[in-house]
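Task 17 of the worksheet. Students: predict the tertiary structure of the chain below and write it out as structure tokens. Keep your answer in the requested format; marks are given for formatting as well as content.
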Amino acid sequence: MLPVSGRISFLMVEHCKIRMGGSVPMRIDISPVGCAPEGDGNKEEIVRETPIPIDRLACLMLGPGTSISQDAIKSCADAGCLVLWTGEHGVRVYSAGQPGGASGAHILRQAEIVLDPQKRLLAARRLYQRMMGAEPPERRSIEQLRGLEGVWVRNRYAELAKLHGVNWNGRYQKLSDPANRAISMATSTLYGITEAAILALGYSPALGIVHTGDARSLVFDMADTLKFRTVVPLAFEIAASRGDDKDLAGMVRRACRDLFVKEKLLDLLVDIIQEVIGAVDGNLVD
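Model answer:
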């Protein structure tokens, strides 16, 4: 099985069927030909089948209108490919599969860090150092570090908006302005490959260090270390130049995929996860 760090980041599909074609899942798209009357049993259709390279894919995102067979799901799990069921354009994740690789030893190490106040604070400081690029102030609790993070995040959003000439009234997921929409789409793709990396390494996405109480708490922790130097600046750039484009979601997804390859983001995520949780090359270290 190919290590997660050597895989393609993600593939997003919508309005199609996924069935097995021999030993490989196939994307099946069916398009009507011509303008035959409704209910005409002789209506011709074009069927296109495209192989999905699950053995080289970290994350397969299934959007609205997609159906997948049980055999195809089993094939993805056996290949170590995480399957996510998402909303339109991948903006929201409703459910996630399990790509295999779960390690009892790794999850025990993760739980030990979460339950030990000193180890959890040390891990949180590593996260914030990765995120902000500087050592956090000494003698601060996790709650105090969260407050510093909130100020830093608001300032960073404002700086990026000013840099790209985007009108900015704050980060609100329900707002429909191009910048907020682009950021939601971009961060969703980042969350997808982050969850894939976490599961592939044998950790639990639910056991967060700074974030708690969510099934993807650790996903948010790890993604936060990278998003303000990867997908968020990219989202502002696209919103500034192509914010009125009808295919904004597609543009953001394609740009994120190119960025993930260019920056070798899966490699970097693996390094960060191992550094923060303290496991190197599968061996537990203190």
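Marker's comment: Residues 19 and 25 are 5 Å apart (CA to CA). The longest strand covers residues 24-32.
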